[in-house]
Specification:
The protein is an alpha+beta fold. The chain is built from 2 helices and 4 strands, in the order αββαββ. It is globular, with a radius of gyration of 12 Å.
């Protein structure tokens, strides 16, 4: 399973309107974040998320982090460079 497929599987289990922010950490230390505004509806969030995921350099992703508004945090760690 590709990194993106795994991440999309996890995201599909969550309600996108519960997600506050998402962060990608690359092996080189660079990080990329996506934050949602609580006022954005589900359709707007889906569109932003899809565009953001398309711009990720998946080969170089070390960690993928998801923070929910209720304080729950998910981390997916990848071990290959």
């Amino acid at each position: 399973m590709s990194k993106r497929s795994l991440v999309e599987s996890v995201l599909s289990l969550l309600d996108i309107e519960d997600i506050e922010k998402i962060k990608v950490d690359y092996f080189n230390g660079e990080e990329v974040k996506l934050s949602f505004d609580e006022a954005e509806n589900e359709e707007e969030r889906e569109e932003l998320l899809e565009e953001w995921l398309d711009n990720i350099k998946w080969k170089f992703v070390e960690e993928f982090k998801i923070d929910l508004y209720n304080g729950t945090k998910y981390t997916i760690k990848f071990g290959d460079a």
